[in-house]
Amino acid sequence: MGLRFDATGGQLSSALKAIIEAERQPIKQLEVRKGKEEQRMKLFQEFKGKFANFDRTLSEFSDFNKFKEFKVDLGDGANNLSVTIDKTKVQPGSYDIEIASLAKRSSIISNGFESAEEANLGVGYIVAYDAKGDKEELYIGKKAASLNGIAAAINGKADSTVKATVIKDSTDPDAPWRLIVSAKKDGLDSEIKFPQFYFLDGHRDLRIEKDNEAANAVLKVDGFEIESSGNKIPEFMTGMNLDLKQAKEGQAFTVQVSEDVPKMAGKVKGLVDQINGILDFINKQNSVDDKTDTSNGFTGDTSLQSIEYRIRNLMHEGFPVWDNPDDSSKPRMVFLNQMGITFEKNGQLTYSEEKFAKAIQSDFNGVSQAITGEYGFATQIRTVMANYTRPGNGLLATRENSLKGRITRINQDIEAKERLVQRKTESLTQQFSRMQSTMQNMQSQQASLSASMGGGGGGGNLISQLMG
Question: Taking Cα atoms as reference points, which of 159, 160, 125 lies closest to residue 141?
Fold first, then answer.
């Protein structure tokens, strides 16, 4: 049997691929490690997200004034006024209110004109005097001497105390267009005096046909008559702002300010829900079976266990309450289960808004202190969480940086090994190329020898005999 060489290079190519594949095995192992670290990072970002709004939630519990909520019941007066409150100042209570008259602003209306656009008034001045007697004067040129032009000039003066508009009054169909100029603010403090208009060389006269005088609002509070310079009354009472809408003399109504217990209960629920989100993540990480791949999660992670341990302990603590803030004696203790918050065997908190509502209604001061006080639940949970959420050196930041660092190092290792494999691939490819060329030359030489030494007689091919 004679020697035969594979000139197509199929065997050499297969051998090259096998060698390169063997060289890439460490890279594949690194990629598997990277995948696990990236899965851990994804889980960590999910865990970190549980803390995303924690500071904002806790800010509502930073002190009692922020935690407490009030509601306002206007009763029969809902159409007469609206009320806004500053919850840090307002006090619960009820007030009998009667709105006798609303505040009014100074205003005038002009005579009627056939057109609001026609500049036929000549040139002149619009003059007004404020409550202090200071004069405000506006020059009107010939091109602007129409009702619309005057209104635009008045409204274009940024520091003006008056405003203007043009209206259509169909009382006189032949001259329906009128100019109204009025003070920007209600009440006697913002009273404006309008003398007659001063215009020359016009085809029409502009004059004041009617005027309204400024007036203060008049209302009664618990039977006492009060005046206000405007219909929007800030700090009318401590922490209470009024916006008068409608006067009904002789018809009193009651404004009731009271604690908004459901809203406060809802705040506590939001805090409990956020804590449960953290605990739920930890519990899921610690729930394993024989099929669980613990290498890409946080099973048994001591830092997660530490968070759960601190929260669990806090749930069973009592929180000190002083019935008299100036009393230095031993405080009484209020527990979370008294406020409707309990720790269950499944590792989650349960919260009864109904029980919390009853607790705060029967012991408003005590429950408020137990939640928002210097040694209260919210303050202590903030201290616990600060160790994890603190920027820079908090546990979350440290763990995140550690995970990022490991992924970065794996990427660097993969890149380095990819470069080595690339160089080796290039080197082996050149070697196999030369080997293939050599084999092809040998095959050509064999064929040439066979052809030159072969014979047509019965003696056969000498080379074939010698080699085969």
Answer: 125
Residues 422 and 274 in one domain: yes
- Residue 187: CA count within 13 A, CB half-sphere: 14
145 and 16 co-located in one domain: no
In this structure, the answer to whether residues 255 and 265 fall within a common structural domain is: no
**Residue 454 domain flag:** no
Confidence class of residue 463 from pLDDT cuts 50, 70 and 90?
Answer: very low
Does 457 reside within a domain?
no
Task: Give the end of a domain, one of 259, 290, 325.
Answer: 259
What SS3 class is residue 187?
Answer: coil
- Residue 236 belongs to domain spanning: 70-103+217-259
State the Cα–Cα distance between residues 416 and 419, nearest whole angstrom. Answer: 5
| Residue 249 CB neighbours (<10 A) | 11
Domain termination site, one of 197, 229, 259: 259
Q: What is the DSSP letter of 66?
A: H
Tell how strand 332-335 and strand 123-129 pair up: unpaired
Q: Model pTM? A: 0.65
Q: What digits encode the pLDDT tens for the residues 134-170?
A: 999 999 999 999 999 999 999 999 889 999 999 999 9
Would the pLDDT of 222 be above 90?
yes
CA dist 322 and 326 (Å) reads 8
Work out the pLDDT band at 3, boundaries 50, 70, 90.
very low
Q: Which of 62-76, 279-293, 304-318, 423-437 has the highest mean pLDDT?
A: 62-76
For residue 153, what is the enclosing H or E element? helix 147-155
| Predicted local confidence at residue 120, as pLDDT | 94
Whether residue 395 is found in the same domain as residue 277 = yes
Domain identity same for 150 and 83: no
Quote the CA–CA distance of 78 and 245 in Å, as a whole number.
9
Judge if 377 and 445 occupy the same domain: yes
Partners of 381 in the β-ladder: none
